[in-house]
Prior knowledge:
Phosphoribosyl-aminoimidazole Synthetase, Chain A, domain 2; four-stranded mixed sheet
Amino acid sequence: MALRDTHVTLAHGGGGKAMRDLITEVFTSVFDPPGFEDQARVMTSALQQPGARLAFTTDSFVVTPLEFPGGDIGKIAVCGTVNDLAVGGARPLWLSAAFIIEEGCEVALLRRIVASMATEAAEADVRIVTGDTKVVERGKGDGVFITTSGIGVIPPGVDLGAARIRPGDVAIVNGVLGDHGATILAARGDLALSVDLNSDCAGLGHLMQAALAAAPGITAARDCTRGGLASALNEMATDAGLAIEIDEDTLPFRTEVKGVCEILGLDPLYLANEGRLVLFCPRDQATAALMAMQSLPEGTGATIIGRAQSGQPGRVTLRTRYGGSRIVDMLVGEQLPRIC
């Protein structure tokens, strides 16, 4: 092994042998990209189908701490980008990964992050085909920042978007909500919280493909990341020009998550998720979508939580278990910074 350093130094970003050793031994030896040019050269027969379209997305990840129960920044980087493609109906195919590394970062930590990314990419059937590394001075980077971009293919006949939601469409989530936000909060150790929680971080590409195959009438989907379910629904209601109502009794939250929120005065509807989505489909296809989702590990807790309806455009309301109703606004400010 040419890389003998235990911590990243500025030399590892200087463009010389130290940088080459870091890239070769930590990154490309694991990701196995197709060649070492300045760009990836990729092909897929999926684009040869008449009506197929490319989907392209990008995201940056700045979570604190870098490792937490159920995942790490590398796992989030892959899953988050895969999910952004998947909820648009695309089959994710290729990712890029750019790393900003702080001087002094442990090489062993980098290796764990990269291994986690490779594992998640394999499970999602995507390839990390190109990337970049930069090293910044100590105190300027907070360990590791990762930016990933993704390309996928939307097959002919698939056209998802919030503007396609119609009154009567039902809203389905694929499992319990808020685990990621509560886990990160507890993992920071600032509040001496002791909870048995793991992040819900998961890739949802296979889940969306199964749901679309079973319920081709699905109109829209959105992953519930920063701002949680409430923000995702508000965005969809605004784009659809419809109202959305959800039922308190059907919302899937763990007792531990609700307990953390009660102690800290937080609303679990706004907690971040990294493996949860909400989709809308016609009522007559809801059972088929549920069964398809529940057949996969990342969708075992799938449940109907509400519906789209005529009403004030962009308004989201919660029907309480006591028969009342309250407005669920878009998140104002930030409940938890550096969450994903």
